[in-house]
Design a protein that fits this description.
Blueprint: E1 5-9, H1 14-25, E2 29-34, H2 41-47, E3 51-55, H3 61-75, E4 80-83, E5 89-90, H4 98-126, E6 129-134, H5 147-167, E7 172-179, E8 192-193, H6 201-211, H7 222-231, E9 238-241, H8 244-262, H9 264-269
Parallel strand pairs: 1-2, 1-4, 2-3, 4-6, 5-8, 6-7, 7-9
Helix pairs in contact: 1-7, 3-4, 4-5
Length: 272
């Protein structure tokens, strides 16, 4: 297997950090984009010139272009591009304010769009590459009190699926990575809780009670799955991470299909 060059956003912690370390540990090179390069100081001591830390705020289109340019200039090519930077805003739809809603989309959706647009000219020139977009199980179904986060991931799903159909002729592959629940900082300091309304206290209490039996995955266990995908000659458009997502999706899609079928006559009459 030949050495690969990776470009990863959101590489300072969580799944992005796990995947960056997995690539470096097997001898690949990684341009690791973070808000503060000090977050990767331990990696720099171990992996030396194989690691290129780049300070980046994905909300800035120009900064993303500059970061991609720096990575290509340093390593000569990009084989694997991972758009992973993101966070979660927690609150009901009614509780969501404009500032936080826009900020959530600026990072989760537009940050991904800027990365994709910045890397495509390079991938087309070199005749291929693999773009991985970190979506979520929340891009397939929705979870109460995370409506804006859900919306960003559904938008990312549409972006990634469309992208795959547009760039296949250039030898560029696209995979939407859809993790279930993991022991990361997703609900910790990297998240933004909104001011809560008492009217939704009952809902929050039910959700908290239901989550007590939830089994969270080990982030380190995702590393081999990601390596398998980037090494596959025909990678999937979508990849679940964890045990739970497939069963949840099967149930949700069965319910959707049943509803569409039950209303099929009404739908057909709307054809005119």
């Amino acid at each position: 297997m030949s050495e690969k060059v990776w470009f990863i956003t959101g590489a300072s912690r969580g799944l992005g950090r796990v995947w960056a370390e997995a690539a470096l540990a097997r001898g690949d090179k990684v341009a690791a984009c973070v808000r503060n390069r000090e977050a990767l100081s331990d990696f720099a001591d171990i992996y030396g010139s194989s690691l290129l830390p780049i300070e980046l705020d994905v909300r800035s289109e120009e900064s993303v272009k500059d970061a991609v340019g720096v990575a290509v200039a340093a390593f000569g090519r990009l084989d694997v591009v991972v758009s992973n930077a993101g966070y979660a805003v927690f609150g009901t739809i009614e509780e969501t304010d404009t500032v936080n809603a826009r900020a959530q989309f600026e990072t989760n959706f537009f940050g991904t769009l800027w990365v994709v647009q910045a890397v495509l000219p390079h991938l087309r020139r070199q005749g291929g590459g693999h773009i991985l977009i970190t979506s979520s199980l929340a891009g397939i179904i929705t979870f109460p009190t995370a409506g804006i986060y859900n919306a960003t991931k559904w938008a990312v799903e549409g972006l990634g699926e469309t992208l795959a159909s547009e760039v296949a002729d250039f030898g560029i592959k696209v995979t939407l990575v859809e993790p279930g629940g993991y022991e990361t900082d997703w609900r910790g300091s990297s998240s933004v809780p909104l001011a809560s309304m008492a009217e939704y206290d009952g809902l929050r209490a039910r959700l908290k009670a239901a989550s007590t039996s939830r089994k969270l995955g080990n982030p380190a266990a995702t590393a081999q799955a990601i390596l398998n995908v980037v090494d596959a000659p025909s990678p999937p458009l979508r990849l679940f991470l964890g045990e739970a997502p497939l069963g949840i999706a099967q149930k949700q899609y069965a319910e959707r299909l049943a509803t569409w079928q039950a209303w099929a006559d009404v739908s057909a009459r709307a054809q005119g």
